[in-house]
Amino acid sequence: MFLSIFDIFKIGIGPSSSHTMGPMTAAARFLDALRTGEREPGAGEVASVEASLHGSLAFTGKGHATDRAVVLGLLGFVPATLDPDAATEAEARLRETRTLALEGLPPLAFDPDRDLVFDFERTLPGHANGMILRARDGAGALYMEETYYSIGGGFVLTAAELRTRDTGGASALHADKQAAGFPYPFGSAAEMLEMGAKYGRSIAQMKAANEQAQMAADELTRGLDRLRDAMFDCIDRGLRMSGELPGGLRVRRRARAIHEQLQAESGRNLAQPHVVNDWLSVYAMAVNEENAAGGKVVTAPTNGAAGVVPAVLRYYRDHCIGATEQGMRDFLLAAAAIGGLIKHNASISGAEVGCQGEVGSAAAMAAAGLCAALGGTNAQVENAAEIALEHHLGMTCDPVGGLVQVPCIERNGLGAIKAVSAASLALRGDGTHFMPLDNCIEAMRQTGVDMGHKYKETSLGGLAVNLPEC
Q1: In this structure, are 264 and 412 located in the same domain?
Q2: pLDDT by residue (tens digit) across 295-324?
Q3: 3-state secondary structure of 100
Q4: What is the reported pTM?
Q5: Which among 116, 320, 407, 419 has most CB atoms closer than 10 A?
Q6: End position of a domain, from candidates 161, 190, 225
Q7: Looking at residue 177, what is its pLDDT?
Q8: CA-to-CA distance for 74 and 50, rounded, in angstroms?
Q9: What is the spatial distance between Cα 117 and Cα 71, in angstroms, rounded to a whole number?
Q10: What would the DSSP string read from start to end of 390-437?
Q11: Tens of pLDDT along 79-126?
Q12: Rounded distance between C-alpha atoms, residue 284 and residue 286, angstroms
């Protein structure tokens, strides 16, 4: 399946792409299935719905607001267009009436306190982020049931769709893309480099050409600029806000205060040379503080890692010599090409492979994007991505309290710093390096398979269980 840049980068809400955006999308999809799908044989008219959360969605669902996401999805909301005020009002009405009033469906009984279950005992076989949605008729007989998996980055697959994906493989992806008319159907970094050399095109140019197989060039440009603006708006919001983040850990926002310090030092020769790392960190932290507060963010490629790419893109615009509008577009295109390779050949889900698949992937994408924007060759871009990913291998996902706050906010800042360092190292060479990106991606996948369950977004190990005693 072709992964568009607008699949990799999606505008949505915090705090989690896999635990908030995905379940909301799944619940909304279930409503569509009720409207158009086939009921169980012998079932009467649909009268009620219920849901169960499994695996990581159960273990860290409360901290990620997964329960509220499912409720809002069943109320017909989707992440990209969610109006926070309308959502709050609709949820309040539901808790009073215990009834879903939806267009195209009869009134459906649904009590969030009774009919939404966190099942800590049963992990579904397809993925760590599993959920089951059921509808029943007036007599309580099963009307329809569907299993959904939130596979990271806001992507959602039914159990049947997941089986199809897992039996396809890279060769099937390659064939599908050729059949669909995409001019550069690379399914691996090696193919990407080979095609670039054969046709004399940069990675960003090949990615743009693939996108333009399904949209006009000016539409692509507008979409890229819209993503950039959404990323920068999120940074700016985060730099304005202060106070405590929700969830009970009493973590205070720090981005605004750090930014004010950096602004006060500018032009006064007070800063150490390494202050550029503080700028990168504050941009990333601003995004992830917004994400932790449930604000509007762009998956890049996930919400938990949403600060890395915007931070490095902002660094390019505001701190790099010779930055251009086209450079920012090339940045996003190259980053999305790398993100698509990682998602297809490994995973971007913290519940599946740990944070190496989230912040590690984001750092690889940002490194590739910056290298491309600064004029790097395809070989240098691939090298930058490999360097950044290689030095995140083995990183666990162990959010304290199931909240996307500790260590996630600072981790994005460090991921941005690594990304810039990786791009700079790659630009100092000619692209020749020992470990190919494809092998590094495979190593990340294997590491994720071997990683213990308690280190993959369950909050059962690591930092999540090593807390201050007071």
Answers
A1: yes
A2: 999 999 999 999 999 999 999 999 999 999
A3: strand
A4: 0.91
A5: 419
A6: 161
A7: 44
A8: 10
A9: 12
A10: HTTTT--B--GGG-S-TTHHHHHHHHHHHHHHHHHHHHTS-S--SS-H
A11: 999 898 899 999 999 999 999 999 999 999 999 999 999 999 999 999
A12: 5
Q: Does 265 map to a domain?
A: yes
Q: Are 157 and 188 members of one domain? A: no
Instruction: Give the Cα separation of 178 and 185 in Å (integer).
Output: 6
Using pLDDT thresholds of 50, 70 and 90, give the confidence band for residue 359: very high
In this structure, the strands spanning 99-100 and 142-152 are unpaired
Does 232 lie in the same domain as 104?
Answer: no
**Strand 296-298 versus strand 99-100 pairing type:** unpaired
Q: Tell me the two tokens of residue 243.
A: 């106070």
> Which two structure tokens, joined as six digits, stand for 94?
């539901």
**Residue 350 and residue 444 in one domain:** yes
Structural domain of 447: 182-465
Name residues whose C-beta falls within 8 Å of residue 156's C-beta, 6 or more positions apart in sequence: 22, 25, 26, 29, 148, 149, 150
For β-strands 116-119 and 46-55, DSSP reports them as: parallel
Regarding whether 156 and 217 lie in a shared domain, the answer is no
Q: What is the rounded CA–CA span in Å between residue 358 and residue 95? A: 35
Q: Does 442 reside within a domain?
A: yes
